[in-house]
């Protein structure tokens, strides 16, 4: 696999389909696994980690349903290319770091599945789907994990469950999350109380890119904090219930916004839409804020309908690494801002 294969490809999880897709952009489940009798990545020698990759590559090749994937050797990629994979939600921020240890990522064709190899753990299996589809996501990742486990000897304790580098992942090794768009709750000043309530339920709130990022432009990732002592079903059930309640609250907040002053909201929306279609310089933050406004307004039918799939895709395409790879060269901040505006004008005008 080569990076250029991904540049002009729309990931399936951005298609704007699935339950509550107008508010829930995606559902993600990640499983952390390590191989028995091989030191965990932070203690392992390069030769150990090469062996890990060889064993995983062999396991993937043994099962026909797991063999049609591409592999990227992260050590051979530039910093921009690694950042590109992070912006596409295919690897973590930690996996972007240039290190001497061998690191890899395996990606399927529609980008719903990625497997980070030699990150914090030997394997980080991830599945992404559009909308609130955690159970569907679990069905796929559980099948992948089960098929891999037939050929790989996982580090597992009868007392503690799957053994991981970080104790908070020990147990199921599962992190389940949903990426939500909550602009009305932000506008109505209700988001801080909501975050406090989420924290009391044992969940954690992060930003658009997940762990290590802060919320911006009304995008919030909500995930479980602990895995030990909970079953996979319990984790999924908890996040599903909380997410459904948040969707209801966001829908009510959107209705209140329209009832309070529809003309003011519509004027603000048309202004944002006009800026995106005619602007010449946008920072990442400015573009994301405007796209957030347009995304809510499209769902409320306040402006000509724009496909959710396009708006979701634009949230990735405006990233610095995406712009530079599409341009084929390194760009300074000002030129990136100009290219970002040009991209938005072209995409929205074509729409």
Q: Secondary-structure element order, as H and E?
A: HEHEHEEEHEEEHHEEHHHHH
**Radius of gyration from the alpha-carbon trace, in angstroms:** 21 Å
| Shape category | globular
Oligomeric nature of the chains: single chain
- Average per-residue pLDDT, rounded, comes to 93
Supply the CATH architecture of the largest domain: 2-Layer Sandwich
Please indicate the percent range of residues in DSSP E strands (runs of 2 or more).
15-25%
| The CATH fourth-level homologous superfamily of the largest domain | Glutamine synthetase/guanido kinase, catalytic domain
Low-confidence stretches: none
* Count of strand segments: 10
Q: What's the number of helices?
A: 11
Broad structural category: alpha+beta
Q: What is the CATH first-level class name of the largest domain?
A: Alpha Beta
> Can you tell me the CATH topology of the largest domain?
Creatine Kinase, Chain A, domain 2
Count up the domains. Answer: 2
Residues in helix, %: 40-55%
The profile of the biggest β sheet is: 8 strands, antiparallel
- Compute the separation of the termini in Å: 30 Å
Question: Widest sheet: strand order?
Answer: 2-3-4-5-1-8-10-9
Secondary structure blueprint with pairings:
Layout: H1 4-7, E1 24-33, H2 46-62, E2 69-73, H3 79-87, E3 104-108, E4 113-117, E5 123-130, H4 134-149, E6 156-157, E7 161-162, E8 174-181, H5 183-187, H6 191-200, E9 203-206, E10 219-224, H7 232-278, H8 284-299, H9 308-317, H10 320-327, H11 333-350
Antiparallel strand pairs: 1-5, 1-8, 2-3, 3-4, 4-5, 6-7, 8-10, 9-10
Helix pairs in contact: 3-10, 7-8, 8-9
């Amino acid at each position: 696999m080569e990076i250029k294969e991904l540049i002009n490809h729309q990931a399936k999880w951005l298609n704007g389909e699935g339950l509550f897709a107008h508010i829930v952009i995606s559902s993600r489940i990640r499983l952390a696994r390590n191989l028995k009798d091989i030191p965990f990545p932070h203690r392992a020698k390069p030769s150990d980690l090469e062996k890990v990759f060889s064993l995983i590559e062999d396991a993937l090749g043994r099962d026909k349903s797991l063999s049609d994937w591409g592999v990227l050797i992260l050590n051979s990629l530039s910093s921009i290319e690694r950042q590109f994979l992070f912006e596409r939600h295919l690897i973590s921020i930690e996996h972007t770091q240039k290190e001497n240890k061998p690191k890899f990522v395996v990606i399927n064709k529609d980008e719903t599945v990625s497997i980070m190899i030699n990150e914090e753990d030997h394997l980080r299996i991830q599945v992404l789907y559009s909308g609130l589809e955690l159970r569907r996501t679990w069905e796929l990742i559980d099948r992948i994990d089960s098929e891999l486990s037939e050929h790989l000897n996982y580090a597992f304790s009868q007392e503690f469950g799957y053994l991981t580098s970080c104790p908070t992942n020990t147990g199921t090794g599962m992190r389940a999350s949903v990426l939500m768009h909550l602009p009305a709750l932000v506008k109505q000043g209700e988001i801080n109380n909501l975050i406090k309530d989420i924290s009391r339920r044992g969940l954690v709130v992060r930003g658009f890119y997940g762990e290590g990022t802060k919320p911006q432009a009304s995008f919030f990732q909500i995930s479980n904090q602990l895995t030990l002592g909970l079953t996979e079903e319990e984790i999924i059930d908890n996040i599903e219930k909380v997410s459904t309640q948040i969707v209801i609250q966001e829908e009510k907040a959107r209705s209140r916004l329209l009832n309070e002053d529809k003309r003011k909201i519509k004027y603000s929306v048309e202004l944002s839409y006009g800026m995106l279609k005619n602007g010449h310089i946008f920072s990442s933050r400015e573009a994301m804020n405007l796209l957030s406004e347009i995304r809510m307004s499209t769902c409320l039918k306040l402006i000509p309908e724009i496909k959710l799939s396009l708006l979701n895709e634009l949230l990735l395409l405006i990233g610095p690494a995406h712009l530079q790879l599409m341009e084929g060269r390194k760009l300074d901040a000002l030129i990136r801002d100009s290219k970002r505006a040009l991209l938005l004008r072209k995409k929205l005008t074509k729409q």
